[in-house]
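Example 3.2
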Amino acid sequence: MSLQKHAVQILSTYLAVLVGSLLILHFWPGEVGLWGTTVLSVGGALLAWWFNRQLRLPTAIETAGLAKAETRVIWGVSGVAIVLIVQLLGSWLESWLFYAPAPTLTQATSALHSVPLYALALVWALPLLEEYAFRRVIFGNLASVTGVFGAALISGLLFALATDPTHWLTATLVGIVYAYLYKQTGSVQTPLIAHIGVLALTLGYAIWH
């Protein structure tokens, strides 16, 4: 499979899940919509995973080589702490620069109390789709055109606009960290570990407190 075909497949799948989820929750709010979104997200993630397995060509980030499995895990777990620190820094900057309130997880925790399996969408399916789309496809392919820093900035900003435009500065910084983790190991598995870990910790903390 070519890099171009892979990019089209992954981005199309991500956009279909993103738009489809918004439409489902608009027309069927409540538990029905959450179940529909969960099924759509998990199905889209599995499809994207299959598309990703078909790609045999390395992206610009992967040409330097793949780190060992233990190195990828270490960077991924370390990335959880890095992202949490960056989130705190981003929230402080947004409060100082824009007087923006700190982000809350009230809506997500309420949804999880209604449909616990919605956690599959929030903690696994959506992070997987986002890492494939924004890191492996956008960052991975742009790096050879704009350079690593330019690609990280562009992919980070697009990630922010798609996932949390209200807190775009924090989300952009987080996206850049995920790109850095990908660059360090040559594997999208590394930022995926960090992404899943951050969401699991923050949502778990919000639910229990």
